[in-house]
Amino acid sequence: MSKIAFFDIDGTLFWPGIGIPDSAKRAVDQLIKNGHKAVICTGRSRGMVPESYFHMGFHGVICGAGTYVEYEGNVLHHDQMTNDEIKKVIEWGRKEKVGIILEGDENGYYDSKNCDETYKTMKKKTEHNCETILQPLEEAVYIPKWTYHYLKPEKKYEIEEILGNRYTGIYHEPEDAVEFMPAGINKATGIACILENCGIGREDAYAFGDSVNDMEMIRYVKYGVAMGNAVPELLKEAPYKTARADEDGIALALKKFELI
C-alpha cells in the first residue's frame, strides 16, 4: 500500500549554502519510484518556492503553512487576504517600525521605504534562499499570509485584534519573526485536506520538519519526524527524530522507515 510523506523546506529539505542536499534529492526520487506519494509542506508561499522544486516529481504542495493546498494538479484549498487587510497590515507594520514581508502566490513583497540595515540584510537572505527578487509592498497581489520581522511577540495581539482575530501569529525565535496565517489554518489542516482527497490514512502518513510551524503536522500524522536541527519544542514533541538536514537526515529517516 502506498504511503505518503510531507516535507517542510527550510531546515528540512533545504539547507543554507547547500540548497537541497543530493542525498535528499535521491531519497525523494526513490520514494516516488517505490510507489509512495511525496508532498512539499512549507511555510513559504507558492510565489517563494523555486520553480525547480515543482519539477522534482512531488505529487502535491502545501504552501503558506496550509493557506494553499494542491494535489495532483488540483487546488483543494486557497486562502487570500482582502485589499483592506493588506493595507492595515502595511500601515500598522510601518507604524511599529518593523520589517514587513508579504508572502504571495506569485511573489514576495518587501518595504522599499524601510532602510534599516538588518531588514535589508534579511531581505537579501530571503531572496537568495528563495531564488527570487522581492517586489515593493505597493505591488502586492494575491496574499495569503505575511511575516513581521523584529516585532515583539506580545505586540502580535494588537494586529490580530485590528484584523478581527481572523489571523494568528506564530513567533519564530531563531529568526526573531512573527508569521501570520488565517486562524485555524496550519500545515496539519493542509495535510488533512490531501489525505481526504487521496484516500491515504493518517496511519500511513509521515511528516518531516524543524520549526514551530511544523508542530501541528508532527502531531497529526502517525510518523512525525523532527530534524536534528529542529527547535527544542519540536524535538521534545516529535515521536521520531533524524539527523540534521545537511547530514543526510531525510535519506536516513526514509531508509529507517523502509520507504526507500
Mind explaining what this structure looks like?
By secondary structure, the protein is an alpha/beta fold. It has helices at residues 22-33, 83-95, 117-130, 156-162, 187-198, 215-220, 232-237, 249-256, and strands at 4-7, 37-41, 60-63, 68-71, 74-78, 99-103, 108-110, 135-136, 145-149, 167-172, 177-182, 205-209, 223-226, 240-241. The chain has an eight-stranded mixed sheet. A six-stranded mixed sheet has the order 8-7-6-9-11-10, covered by helices on one side. Helix 1 (22-33) runs parallel beside helix 8 (249-256). The radius of gyration is 18 Å and the shape is globular. The two termini are 14 Å apart. The mean pLDDT is 96.
List keywords for this structure.
8 helices, 8-stranded mixed β-sheet, globular, alpha/beta, single chain, 260 residues, 6-stranded mixed β-sheet
Tell me about the largest β-sheet: 8 strands, mixed
Distance between the termini: 14 Å
In terms of structural class, how would the helical and strand content be classed?
alpha/beta
List the helices and strands in order. Answer: EHEEEEHEEHEEHEEHEHEHEH
> In what order do the strands lie side by side in the largest sheet?
5-4-3-2-1-12-13-14
Fraction in beta strands: 15-25%
* Overall average residue pLDDT: 96
Helicity level:
25-40%
Topology readout:
Elements: E1 4-7, H1 22-33, E2 37-41, E3 60-63, E4 68-71, E5 74-78, H2 83-95, E6 99-103, E7 108-110, H3 117-130, E8 135-136, E9 145-149, H4 156-162, E10 167-172, E11 177-182, H5 187-198, E12 205-209, H6 215-220, E13 223-226, H7 232-237, E14 240-241, H8 249-256
Parallel strand pairs: 1-2, 1-12, 2-3, 7-8, 12-13, 13-14
Antiparallel strand pairs: 3-4, 4-5, 6-7, 6-9, 9-11, 10-11
